[in-house]
Amino acid sequence: MPTYFLSLLTIPISIALRLEKLMRDFLWKGSVNASGINLVAWRVLCLPNKGGGLGVRDLGLFNKALLRKWIWRSLEGYYEGVGGFMSTRIIPARELGNGGRTHFWHDEWCNQMPLRDKFPELFVLASYQEALVVDCLSPSPVGDAWSPIFRRGAQDWELEVFEEFFRLIQEVHPRSQEMDKWRWKKQGKGSFKVSTFYQSLMELGDPTFPWKEVWVNRVPSKVCFFGWAAVKGEILTIDNLRRRRRIVTEWCYMCKGNAETTDHLLIHYQVASELWSLVLSIFGVQWVMHVSVRELFACWSQAGCRGSRRIAWRAVPYVCFGVFRVKGICVRSRT
Ligand SMILES: [Zn+2]
After folding, report:
1. pTM (2 d.p.)
2. How far away, in angstroms, is 304 Cα from ligand 1 center?
3. 110 vs 168: CA distance, rounded Å
4. Is 138 a domain residue?
5. Are 230 and 326 in the same domain?
6. 97 partner at 20 to 30 Å CA-CA among 88, 252, 258, 314?
């Protein structure tokens, strides 16, 4: 039902912010009135998994993408003014039929850009700059031939540009029996998709984030969520609490000998280190432990076991993290 209304109406900013707050509270606190800390910014949560986010929908952008679908559908019936409707970043291209609804110089129909941009020196020489493609075709015994009209003939120094221009347009053959259509450039088949448009509006995020190692099949999603937060260094460790101006003693709750950071707690703390050694020895792997959890995840799938033990190998970090489940509860109780 919310998606239905979002596809019809522009969502007020205050409503979007209110809904996002409800979702944020549910994610980090479990309910609106519970206490807790928002460990990761909402903007980051909305990034795609590949970019280091959770792929949560940004309501404003999703609303915009849904509304664009109506504009796309109207394009098949109307032609004028399309540039004003669509985002300047994502203007659709033309799929040439008989050329009767496509501007020769202004539309993108035979190249990755309009001809006026590809050949600006020829555009200023065009006799009729608003000509349609069909206006630039002449019937001939072997089919239509290209015949754009210029105000004067080519000069010696312009021959190379003219030659490239005609070579380019002669690669395209209008189909006289069909009407021109819009083609969505971001989609293989050329049809508009809300999901594709939404993705094009979103930031890409961090391309180096080890998302394949974090989101592992057959591992419960809430466990993967913990791994995701750990890779980002955003679990409830002392250093994170102090960064948020919580007054707590700066020492490791477990060994009471070091500062408590995500990397110390999960891979360098003595018990964690022994657990890693034990699990790695079961797999018969010699491993030099990385400095950070992020580096560990980034290298994890490139090493270790192959074949049938591969699935178990991918879940090993979560087995080792599991020992801190009780610890996580202890930390939460301090907040
Ligand atoms: Zn410690």
Report:
1. 0.68
2. 27
3. 7
4. yes
5. yes
6. 88
